[in-house]
């Protein structure tokens, strides 16, 4: 039997159909959870209001002292997020118990930065939006779940590409016809038109969403693939410990921060990471030009806690190779890259799988019912 264009097209159509029926519901879940996560800090604040907070007035040492006094049983290692004015600071503590098995469940603490006070504390995964986050990222299955999500994402890329092939006009047809919606047609035809028009219209949104999701879920294969086209960047790691005897002395956070600001004087501070017992360095993360990440920037200054000297720096805007490309995955996937407009786009894009799966499944069920109904006469 010879392979003809018609045979290939029929095969592509069947692949698209059965992939859609197999992973379509999963894709709907990913889309809807992704829509929520585009605004998850705002939704979480709405679900768990803590009231108004004042302008930051307390020193970082006061805030850190409050955390240590309130949770003396936890490690000295805290990550403190510097929130915009009028919002509470958020601190995270990750102990060995929080990482037991396949868990990732840091203690999350919200703090009033004006008159330091604990406003709220929750364990990651035990409140709504972090549960949604874990469902989206790894299906509540731990690290192995991320591999499953990445695998399903690869199948979704095939689903999208076969849909594009199915939509593409055949020889003798036109793009105008392929982009038309027949009025007054039978339900099966109307559902087909809706499915293909929403699919082709949303392709420019869905492809980058799925592709960046796959790359974040499968970092090692992604690194290997990118290395074929560009140099491999050295992974970011904490700066080496400066040679200094530990005599118990430790510079304050404010003193270390003043030193760190000398490297990025105009950049907004986003995170402060205090050293764990036995570690030597504070880490200060700044939002710098050239780094597309706003909430989770990569530009870092490490300051030795004993001497107060700079132990290392990283300017994310000067990175090249695989690390530079990978830094775009999260801001593109989450919609963070251009702020509110792209978050709205990502939120709307997350609704497309529901329309596509719903219209495709409904049409398939109508066709199946027609085939099961005996012909009259």
Automatic annotation (TrEMBL):
**Where would one find the signal peptide in this protein?**
none
Keywords recorded for this protein, A-Z: Membrane, Transmembrane, Transmembrane helix
The answer to keyword Acetylation applying to this record is no
Question: Which Pfam family would be a valid example here?
Answer: PepSY_TM
* Annotated TM spans: 15-40, 145-168, 197-218, 340-362
Q: Which InterPro entries match?
A: PepSY-ass_TM
Is the Nucleotide-binding keyword given for this protein? no
Q: Which domain of life is it from?
A: Bacteria
Please state what the protein is called.
PepSY domain-containing protein
Source species of the chain: Croceibacterium xixiisoli
